[in-house]
């Protein structure tokens, strides 16, 4: 039995697997011997950045985790769980699938959707809605078009077949993502909060089952692959890209939901990154137990798989289940009914060690605690330093920019920019209607809103991050990302509850990239404390950069924020569309003579170096509190935040659904381009019927929040300062078709 353990791995093999020399020495110290190749492979994936968060965990621990609705905190289970009342909870999470999508966009994106949904239903929650946040390079590049088409089709095909609606998301283009796109997938599910399934192994002697699909060679070492640079040689890592089957996942969902109603489960975990290795080690460590696992009993779809291949495979649609001894037949019968594998591959022990066998030969013996996040896995606090560009960006002065003479021409050009134009080419490939829960399919709102059946409530959700702001100022930019997410929830009629995050950054060993990461964590903490939206979990994705001739070119730092909120009365879900001619248009919040980091400045004018836009967290919070009250009191009939593209784009987006228009007057003390296209934060546009104008003014006086009467809704004409800016029909033609024209040409 000891023969295999005596075949020691070499330091060269360890380095090839992604371990550092000092880490290999640490493993030898933990084991009291030199590991064999299989054990070294196990440590390489479990100590990879993707699984261990070794370069981020110390900073992640500083994020706020307590809040009024928390039932399961960050790090305790596969996903966060918050109380939504009526005995129900919401399980939600966001994760990245960046590196696989860079090489094989269709399967990379599809399996990202599958993996995030498994995280939800593994806890016993039925997924009810999905979102996604996508970043791509220059849309003129042929490779970017290939990536966009593959990613969108992968998300659509998997999500549509699985049967969960996609209710919102975001798409952003910038040259920094030319090589390394970002694909962040979010899922939310509803659960009876008393019936949560834990990812903890307990009870020595209890059998361990692998359920779902068979195991193949796809995705081997995918976690390690996700923890290194994308280079010209990355095509050789294609076996690290998983292959998904949404129909198999649908069967697995239904079998899991049925199993959750029994008393046969002790614990269950999705097999995502690092496959069997991760689930056996993490479940064992969580319960302070061990496992004996027999790899020859694992259902395989390829012959002659080596032990490390079985352990590191990231084949999709699989889960590990610890079953109450004596109740094995319950599990087998349920999975047989759904035509899925349910094979007993081992049992729980009291040793604290996970031992792997093949044909009764011991091929690996490792202490579970030494492999897991927060346990024996390394934890590093990297050096960081402020990049030179940061102070240079702050030198920007708006007076150095000459204002264009024809702002109507600028406005129409803005509507055709990839980051502003309608993303209908994308979302029309997604099924937003399946499940009959989506409340915003034909009622456009700042957040996706889904019905919580059997209650008077709805669930609002959004994903947000303007990575240009974060690049300009990581701390302020991330505060803005959290604030915009909260603003979108509030504008939809909800109360922000909690967040999940997907932290996409460059190489953590690069002090300037790590400085961006640290700044983002600080900004997130500050904003989450202000809005009482604790962090429930998420993931960190480092190494998002291109290496060319030894020079690293990182993507814009992108801390994507996924937020959920409760709509207390689903009859008060708020939409963004103008309702009728003559309604008064008000801006809530302050104007600033600011165009910093705006789409207008960076893309239209081509000025890349400027600080983050104006932002005041306290004023943002006060503004959002005022908007909550306006919606609760039924005073306003349309609400939309001012974000990318500024006030002009906000007004166009409010005009489009009913093909109405606007007649407004600018502020004479503000440059007109800043008034129309500046992206200073903390502003929301609302419309009020003439009958409720007095109530609106009385209410806003009490709040002490600044308001400005902009003008009124028209039948379709666009007018600013008595100058004709065209008709909404002209704007619609540009806005609706610009993206598809660029992608299809």
Question: Your description of this structure?
Answer:
- The chain has 745 residues and is α+β, with helices and mostly antiparallel strands.
- The protein folds into three domains: 248 residues, Phosphoribosyl-aminoimidazole Synthetase, Chain A, domain 2; 273 residues, 60s Ribosomal Protein L30, Chain: A; 215 residues, PurM-like C-terminal domain (Phosphoribosyl-aminoimidazole Synthetase, Chain A, domain 2, Alpha-Beta Complex).
- The chain is 34% helix and 23% strand.
- The protein is built from 25 helices and 27 strands.
- The strands form five sheets. The chain has a seven-stranded mixed sheet. The protein has a seven-stranded mixed sheet with strand order 22-24-21-25-23-26-27, sandwiched between helices.
- Helix 7 runs parallel beside helix 10 and helix 8 packs parallel to helix 10.
- The chain is globular and about 85 Å long.
- The N and C termini lie far apart (63 Å).
């Amino acid at each position: 039995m000891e023969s295999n353990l005596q075949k020691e791995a070499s330091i060269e093999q360890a380095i090839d697997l992604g371990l550092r020399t000092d880490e290999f020495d640490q493993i030898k110290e933990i084991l009291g011997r030199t590991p064999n190749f299989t054990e070294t492979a196990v440590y390489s994936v479990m100590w990879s950045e993707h699984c261990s968060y070794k370069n981020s965990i110390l900073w992640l621990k500083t994020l706020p985790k307590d809040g009024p609705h928390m039932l399961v905190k960050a790090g305790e289970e596969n996903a966060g769980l918050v109380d939504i009342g009526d005995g129900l909870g919401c399980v939600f999470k966001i994760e990245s699938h960046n590196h696989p999508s860079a090489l094989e966009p269709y399967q990379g994106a599809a399996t990202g959707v599958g993996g995030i949904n498994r995280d939800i239903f593994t806890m016993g929650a039925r997924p009810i809605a999905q979102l996604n946040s996508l970043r791509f390079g220059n849309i003129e590049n042929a490779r970017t078009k290939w990536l966009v088409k593959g990613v969108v089709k992968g998300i659509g095909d998997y999500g549509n077949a699985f049967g969960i609606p996609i209710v919102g998301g975001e798409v952003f283009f910038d040259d920094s993502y030319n090589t390394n796109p970002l694909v962040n997938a979010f899922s939310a599910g509803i659960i009876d909060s008393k019936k949560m399934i834990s990812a903890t192994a307990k009870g020595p002697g209890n059998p361990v089952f692998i359920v779902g699909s068979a195991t193949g060679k796809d995705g081997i070492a995918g976690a390690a692959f996700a923890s290194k640079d994308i280079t010209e040689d990355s095509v050789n890592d294609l076996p690290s890209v998983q292959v998904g089957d949404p129909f198999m996942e649908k069967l697995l969902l239904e079998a899991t939901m049925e199993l959750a109603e029994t008393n046969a489960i002790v614990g269950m975990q999705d097999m995502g990154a690092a496959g069997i290795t991760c689930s056996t080690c993490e479940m064992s460590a969580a319960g302070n137990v061990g496992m004996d696992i027999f790899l020859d009993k694992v259902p395989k779809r390829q012959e002659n798989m080596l032990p490390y291949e079985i352990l590191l495979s990231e084949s999709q649609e699989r889960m590990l289940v610890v079953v109450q001894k004596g109740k094995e037949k319950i599990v087998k019968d349920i999975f047989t009914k759904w035509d899925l594998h349910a094979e007993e591959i081992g049992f729980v022990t009291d040793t604290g060690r996970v031992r792997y066998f093949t044909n009764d030969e011991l091929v690996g013996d490792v202490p579970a605690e030494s492999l897991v996040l927060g346990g024996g896995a390394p934890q590093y606090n990297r050096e960081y330093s402020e990049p030179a560009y940061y102070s240079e960006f702050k030198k920007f002065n708006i007076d150095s920019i000459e204002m264009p003479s024809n702002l109507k021409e600028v406005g129409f050009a803005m509507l055709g920019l990839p980051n502003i134009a309608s993303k209908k080419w994308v979302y029309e490939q997604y099924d937003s209607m399946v499940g009959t829960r989506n409340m915003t399919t034909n009622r456009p709102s700042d957040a996706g809103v889904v019905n919580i059946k059997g209650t008077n409530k709805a669930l609002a959700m959004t994903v947000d991050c303007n990575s240009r702001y974060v690049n300009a100022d990581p701390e302020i930019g991330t505060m803005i990302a959290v604030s915009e997410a909260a603003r979108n929830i509030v504008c939809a009629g909800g109360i922000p509850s909690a967040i999940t995050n997907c932290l996409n950054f460059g190489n953590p060993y690069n002090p300037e990239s790590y400085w961006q990461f640290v700044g983002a964590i600080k900004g997130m903490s500050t904003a989450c404390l202000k809005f009482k939206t604790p962090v429930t979990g998420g993931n960190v994705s480092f190494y998002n950069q291109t290496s060319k001739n030894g020079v690293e070119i990182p993507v814009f730092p992108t801390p994507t924020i996924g937020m959920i909120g409760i709509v207390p009365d689903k009859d008060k879900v708020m939409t963004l569309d103008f309702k009728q001619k003559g309604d008064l248009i008000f801006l809530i919040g302050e104007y600033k003579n600011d165009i910093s980091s705006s789409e207008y400045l960076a893309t239209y004018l081509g000025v890349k170096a400027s600080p983050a836009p104006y932002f005041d967290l306290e004023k943002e919070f006060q503004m959002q509190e005022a908007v909550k009250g306006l919606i609760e009191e039924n005073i306003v009939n349309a609400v939309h935040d001012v974000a990318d593209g500024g006030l002009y784009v906000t007004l166009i987006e409010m005009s489009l659904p009913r093909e109405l228009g606007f007649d407004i007057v600018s502020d004479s003390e503000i440059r007109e381009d800043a008034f129309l296209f500046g992206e200073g934060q903390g502003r929301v546009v609302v419309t009020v019927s003439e009958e409720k104008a007095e109530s609106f003014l009385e209410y806003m006086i009490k709040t002490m929040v600044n308001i400005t009467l902009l003008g009124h809704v028209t039948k379709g004409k666009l007018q600013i300062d008595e100058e004709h800016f065209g008709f909404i029909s002209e704007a619609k033609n540009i806005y609706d078709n610009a993206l598809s024209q660029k992608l299809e040409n």
